[in-house]
C-alpha cells in the first residue's frame, strides 16, 4: 500500500489514507534572460540556484467516523509546519515540505472522502539517514552519492591555528580551542554554545561536490566530523 510519512506519522497506518503515486518533478533553475536590441537571442544569467517544487498527492479516506478522522488529519497536516516528507516507494530519501493548500474534503458516499494535499517542498531530496562521518586522518576521501553538491556541517576538534582543505579549497581557522562548528548551510561558525566564531575563520564555506572529496588539514587537529547533508535533484 502506497503511503507517505509526514512529521513522523504514516498516512495509511495512522489515518487510513490511500494515495495515488504522485508525480515528482525536478526543480527549476533560476535563470534570468536579458533582451538586448539588435542582438540575436538573449543573454542568460544562471544564478546557480533552484526554485521550490510542488507535489500534489491525491488521497482517499475510507471508513466510519469520517468527520472525526478529517479533523485529526487537518490537525496533523497544518500543525506540522515544515517537516520531513517521505514516500513509501522511496523511503531512503526525504523532502522538506509544508502543506500550502486549503484541503477540500469531497465526500463521495457516506464512507468515502477524496481530497488533494499540496506540499510545497524545498528543491532537493535529502538522505533520510544523515549520519556523522568521523575522519581521523588527513587526506581521507569522502564520496558524495547525491546528484548535486551538498552543504555540510563540519565539526573540527583541535586547537591553535589550523587549515582545513576540502578538494584543495583552504579554510583557515585562527586561535581556537577544543571545537569549532563550520556550518555551510547557515554560512556561520560557532561553538557548542552558539557563540559566534566567524572572526576566527578566513575562507569560503566548504561544499562537497558529487563524487570524490578529499578532506585534508594542517595543524593540531585530533579529528573532523562531517554531517554531509547529501541531496538529489
Secondary structure blueprint with pairings:
Blueprint: E1 4-6, E2 9-10, H1 11-15, E3 17-19, E4 29-34, E5 43-50, E6 53-62, H2 66-79, E7 83-87, E8 93-99, E9 106-109, E10 112-121, E11 125-127, E12 133-135, E13 140-144, E14 153-166, E15 169-183, E16 188-190, E17 201-203, E18 211-227, E19 231-232
Antiparallel strand pairs: 1-2, 1-7, 3-6, 4-5, 6-10, 7-8, 8-10, 8-11, 9-10, 11-19, 12-18, 13-18, 14-15, 14-18, 15-16, 15-17
Written description of the protein model:
The chain is mainly beta. It has helices at residues 11-15, 66-79; strands at residues 4-6, 9-10, 17-19, 29-34, 43-50, 53-62, 83-87, 93-99, 106-109, 112-121, 125-127, 133-135, 140-144, 153-166, 169-183, 188-190, 201-203, 211-227, 231-232. It contains two helices and 19 strands. The protein has two domains: 4-125, Beta Barrel (Elongation Factor Tu (Ef-tu), domain 3); 133-232, Jelly Rolls, CATH 2.60.120.860. Strand 7 (83-87) and strand 8 form a beta hairpin. Strands 1, 2, 3, 6, 7, 8, 9, 10, 11 and 19 form a ten-stranded antiparallel β-sheet that branches.
CATH class of the largest domain: Mainly Beta
> What's the number of domains?
2
Number of helices: 2
Strand content: over 45%
Rg, Cα atoms, Å = 23 Å
Average pLDDT figure: 91
The CATH architecture of the largest domain comes to: Beta Barrel
**Are there runs of 5+ residues with pLDDT below 50, and where?**
none
- State the separation between the terminal residues, measured CA to CA: 25 Å
* Helix residue percentage: under 10%
Coarse structural class: mainly beta
Could you give the order of the helices and strands? EEHEEEEHEEEEEEEEEEEEE
Main β-sheet description: 10 strands, antiparallel
Shape verdict: globular
Query: How many beta-strand elements?
Result: 19
CATH topology title of the largest domain = Elongation Factor Tu (Ef-tu), domain 3
Pfam families: Sipho_tail (PF05709)
InterPro entries: Dit_BPSPP_N, Siphovirus-type_tail_N
Organism: Caloramator quimbayensis
Protein name: Putative phage tail component, N-terminal domain-containing protein
Amino acid at each position: 500500500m502506497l503511503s507517505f510519512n509526514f512529521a513522523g506519522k504514516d498516512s495509511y497506518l495512522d489515518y487510513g489514507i490511500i494515495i495515488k503515486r504522485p508525480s515528482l518533478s525536478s526543480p527549476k533553475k533560476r535563470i534570468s534572460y536579458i533582451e538586448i536590441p539588435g542582438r540575436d537571442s538573449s543573454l542568460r544569467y544562471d544564478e546557480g540556484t533552484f526554485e521550490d517544487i510542488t507535489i500534489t498527492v491525491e488521497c482517499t479516506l475510507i471508513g466510519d467516523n469520517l468527520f472525526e478522522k478529517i479533523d485529526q488529519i487537518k490537525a496533523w497536516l497544518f500543525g506540522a509546519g515544515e517537516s520531513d516528507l517521505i514516500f513509501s516507494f522511496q523511503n531512503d530519501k526525504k523532502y522538506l515540505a509544508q502543506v500550502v493548500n486549503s484541503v477540500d474534503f469531497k465526500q463521495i458516499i457516506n464512507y468515502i472522502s477524496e481530497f488533494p494535499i499540496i506540499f510545497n517542498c524545498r528543491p532537493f531530496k535529502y538522505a533520510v539517514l544523515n549520519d556523522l562521518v568521523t575522519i581521523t586522518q588527513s587526506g581521507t576521501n569522502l564520496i558524495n552519492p547525491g546528484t548535486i553538491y551538498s552543504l555540510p556541517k563540519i565539526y573540527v576538534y583541535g586547537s591553535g591555528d589550523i587549515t582545513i582543505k576540502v578538494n584543495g579549497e583552504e579554510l583557515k581557522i585562527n586561535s581556537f580551542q577544543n571545537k569549532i562548528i563550520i556550518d555551510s548551510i547557515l554560512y556561520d561558525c560557532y561553538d557548542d554554545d552558539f557563540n559566534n566564531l566567524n572572526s576566527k575563520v578566513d575562507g569560503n564555506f566548504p561544499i562537497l561536490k558529487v563524487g570524490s572529496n578529499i578532506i585534508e588539514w594542517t595543524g593540531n587537529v585530533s579529528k573532523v566530523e562531517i554531517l554531509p547533508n547529501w541531496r538529489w535533484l
